[in-house]
Amino acid sequence: MVLLKAEHITKKYSGRTIIKDINIELHKGELISLLGVSGSGKTTLFHVLSGLTTPEEGRVLLNGEDITSRPGQISYMLQKDLLFPHKKIIDNTALPLVLHGMSKKEARKKAQTYFEDFGLEGTEYQYPSQLSGGMRQRAALLRTYLSSNGVALLDEPFSALDTITKTAIHRWYLEVMQHIELSTIFITHDIDEAILLSDRIYILNGKPGEIRDEIIIKEKKPRAEDFYLTDEFLAYKREIIAKL
Amino acid sequence: MTKRLQSITSKLPAVVALCLLILLWQFLCQSGAVPAYMLPSPVQVIKALVTDLPTILEHASVTLQEAFYGLCIGVGLAFVMATLMDHFQILNKALYPILIITQTIPTIAIAPLLVLWMGFYMAPKITLVVITTFFPITVGLLDGYKSVDKDSIDLMRAMGATKIQIFFHVKFPTALPQFFSGLKISASYAVVGAVISEWLGGFEGLGVYMTRVSKAYAFDKMFAVIIFIVIISLLLMGAVNLIKTLSLPWVRVEKKEALE
């Protein structure tokens, strides 16, 4: 079942075409990656998908409904965790619910129910500055999840983390995604990360950025920790490098 | 315990410097290097402060009222002005240069005009306090609003937040530390502004009392009032610091985390 669909998206800034005729689909429960060199328009595409900016051509459909230029329909996690330093973790995560009219008390109660799944128990009344990088990412992911209609856009969510934390959070992310059934598109520069996490990978390249290829990762999820070392993994990696 | 000790140690140079300055002052007066009619000694000033305290307190209650009303109106005006200027860029472009110009006009030059226009009671004094206090707060708030990360605004928009929600959840809280920095400066300006305006006319207040004692060449009393004003200003700044610490618990936590 197609959850999110972008049709013929073209976006220009100051007369310059940044992305051209982009067509992508996200199915329910799927995790797809956008891989591409810097400046190929990945973040611009996310701005269009999230409704922050209006494309010159094309439209975005969520469950068949046109949501082009309508922010607040799908959640978007930007490159930094962007937790608000003045809000406690419980209020940071509950914020999307409050913005949509829920009372603070109710929103806190609902957010609280996910703290265990997201490994955030005990951090409810702490400020973001008291959390490690990995925990902050988890809190930001929970906020993203709570603001989603089942679809999340993640722009390089793990790029700021060190390798050990990143590996741990990859494992945790795959487990939690199975559990909460969040369909995700995420941008990454890390080919290994894309192969490990994704069901499909779109290669976005060129100027203006265009979808050059689509690679399907057939291995079932959650993938084993040593998937990195398998011949299949290396075969995918070779294929992607050749296409980038 | 170690942090407490560090905090005390960091303040020690300032305390020692102040004590040395007072000792030097006392020595210069006692040795006769400076005539007593020109500069009273610290001991004479403290004596005058103790003797005159009831009169000073009576006048101070008027000055503090003027400072308080002026500061409150100044804060309110600054909040409205900065918020509008941040929201409407055209207003920012039009008003920012005027704001700067108002700060180049010496307070002492406007005070007589205000007395002429508004009379000898509280109105011209409060107006002068408003003029002197609202600028640091406006600039502080404007800088605070501008310091908000653009990505944070995008994130809020992506979550479907309205402009008012973005203001109350992100912009205003982010601007609060700068607001308090401006308020701290304004709190000290408020008392000084009220005293200056009282110099030029009025019936009560520390400024009025200062002009009276200066005409009587009672310099010890004059210094006593000056010291009293310094104490009030420091107390006000301390009060603002306390409100800031209580209102911004996350800043306190961040500082603590940074130290660990």
Automatic annotation (TrEMBL), chain A:
SUPFAM superfamilies cross-referenced by the UniProt entry: P-loop containing nucleoside triphosphate hydrolases
Boundaries of every ABC transporter domain copy: 4-233
InterPro entries recorded: AAA+_ATPase, ABC_transporter-like_ATP-bd, ABC_transporter-like_CS, ABC_transporter_ATP-bind, P-loop_NTPase
Signal peptide feature range: none
A family per Pfam: ABC_tran
Top-level taxon of origin: Bacteria
ATP-binding in keyword set: yes
GO molecular function: ATP binding; ATP hydrolysis activity
Keywords noted in UniProt: ATP-binding, Nucleotide-binding, Transport
SMART domains: AAA
Entry-linked Gene3D superfamilies: P-loop containing nucleotide triphosphate hydrolases (3.40.50.300)
Protein's name according to its UniProt entry: ABC transporter ATP-binding protein
Species this protein is from: Anaerobutyricum hallii
